[in-house]
Task: structure prediction
Amino acid sequence: MRRALAWILSGMLVLPLVLLVLLSLARHWTWPALLPADLQLRQWRDLFADANGLGTVVLRSLGMGIGVAVAATALGFASSRSLARHARQGRLLALLHLPFAVSPVVLGVSLLYAFLRLHLAGHLLGVMLAQLVFAYAYAVILLSGFWNPRARSLEELASSLGAGRRQVWLHVLMPLARPLLGVCLFQTFLISWFDYALVLLIGSGQVATLTITLYQYFSSGDIRLAATCALLLLAPPLLALGLNQQLLSATIVTHLEAHDDD
Amino acid sequence: MSRSRRPDPWIILLATMSAGPVLAGLVFMLLYSTGQIGLLAHGFTLHYWRVVLDDRQTWITLAYSLAMGLASLGASLLLALALQAALGARLRRGALRGLLFVPLAVPPLVAALLSVEVLGNAGLLARLAHALGWIDQPGDFPSLLFTPSGVGIVLAHMTLVTPFLLLLLDRLGRNARVADLMQVARTLGASRWQAWRQVCLPVLMRAGMPVLSVYFIALMGAFEVPLLVGAQYPAMVSVLIQRRFSQFDISTRPEAYVLASLYACLAMGLLLALFAWRGRREAGERAA
Amino acid sequence: MTTDASSPTLRVDRLGVQLGGQVILHDVSFVVDVHTTMAVIGASGCGKTTLLRAIAGLLTPAHGEVKLGARRVDLLAPNRRGIVYLNQEPLLFPHLDLFENIAFGLRLRRLPERQVRERVAEMLVQLELDGMERRHAHALSGGQRQRAAFGRALVVEPALLLLDEPFSNLDPDTRTSMQDLFKQLARRRGITALLVTHDLKESMRMGDSFAMMRGGRVHAYADRKAFCADPASGVEREAAFWQAFTSGDAQVSGCDARTADS
Result:
């Protein structure tokens, strides 16, 4: 009974991926066929061959994601240390949740005007900045779990042994935090990589990312290409899952570590 | 805490980056929607606020968002608790352990796309029903998507949220040593059901409350899923704001700002209430 | 469950436990007389905890019988045995305050509210925890938590109390006062108990009868004298060590100091 249930659940978890692959390869999949008639790899080739095609979009999305991730993680690591030592930790933690509470659409709508004035709307940089608001807040919350008493005593030990500020960061804190920093980089990358609302609003139709392209194909009825975009969107996180589940489970760790000991 | 009275620059950055955009955006929307700035500025007016506050759709949308958020989270939580009770340690073994992470790799946009392809009138389930001889045409399949009931929204969110909750419950359970606590309850005379009901459930809910409530607020403001599988009317709040904001007719913009301001205040109010409540609970338990 | 014939004799007969194909308990047999405490001494890993968990019904034995008085309990669910198992650590329910923790078992038995209040209040006084009713576990000290766990077990008047190294996490002073408290309560309430420990002094203080556990086998002694006389018990070694000290000949067995304060 348990075993059967486990198998059903496993099936339900895998099925969507199989469906996406079928959708992206099927030339025709007419009602009421259970499986598509002919599967072809051709559109995958066409998609990337096109000069202005998906290749550029993927590179743009990747670049944005990496930029946002690096900035959010670097700034977040430094801020999280100050947060962990702050007397009003609880209140600051509440502030960090604000962007997530008001939702990307509301924030995007409300900031668009200011971004237009600053000539940031419709630009890559503007979209990245908006994404950074979310990624940074996330990074601080995640990384604040790192500054437990153990990290602090190691930091103090290093300085009592004669290490300067820079040396403490470079030779003690960074290596100590490396696994968590990796998780943070990856998760903040996903915040940008998965984002649709902010690109839509701040990008104002001028910034074509993978999610925007997916939606365009979907709304124009081209399910095959939309599914292909979807597969591309899933590729980095699924790859990471194969390498290290920790990278994806971070969301769960975050909240626990951040909330456990306050 | 700090050595000097000089404020910590990292804390300033933290406050500026998190509260800054939210508050700046809110102030801007208030000014714009009262006719003080922007293309439609003709001096102070409460016209747009009156229009939006008088519009029944505003309140329906806010209530609908609240309901969809609650339903999505509630249904996912029930399913996750049921699966956890039914599967127990099997969730942590074999292929299932890794597969539970797969939905964490799926963005809402893709989840919505998949919902259309599985639950739609010509989707996989409808084809299956046809193959089994239950229906003849796509139209015979019960409408799960684009309906005011929001079944599609809830189902799509469930695929995203349930696996996350399963992993969360598992982790919370191990952190709080729920299995051991349940054994204590058992030797004190609790039946299996009593141990689950009186120990496991309250311990998990207590520990999970902060994450669950933040998750609820985020679901209330969900955008991609209701955009793709939601009904035209009623719309969830993010969808309605975006719709009014992006219309060619720029005159609906102030109304979009009013709605967005209302929603922002609602969500922020909920969040701050949550944090205040948590602070009080912890202080109360320490004192006594 | 636990009325007039509340504390009957415990009889364990040829109890065997296998875990993962490994034999943990070999045909264990012994008797604990009514209203007495048997102390089982053994090194860690000898199967002490397994023995208690098997008696409590928290794991399924391969064979053998457990009887309380005339009643065979090993086929009953743990909650129907009237046996309370006390962990090494005091596991208080985190969602309940001190009062409700102690009242937990009484509420399960659907006692009238007034009785619950009276019995919990009385227990709190005996434990010297009165005035802390509304505190939660994390606002109590280690010793207070341990006392609370004790009270929670004793208040339901179990037919048998199983103690698994209950004092090992406490500092020496608290440990001694807890041992005294337990003896007091056990005598006053006529409790039958089985205590496992690796601490020789603790077993001598708390036990009315004694047994030695080694490699999954239990050897029960006829009386205290027999226990002390058995070289394997270590009582004589311990006594010799202290004698050597008091007669000023410390170097001889100085390296044995570890045994003395274990």
Summary: Chains A and C do not touch (no CB pair under 8 Å). Chain A has one domain: 58-260.
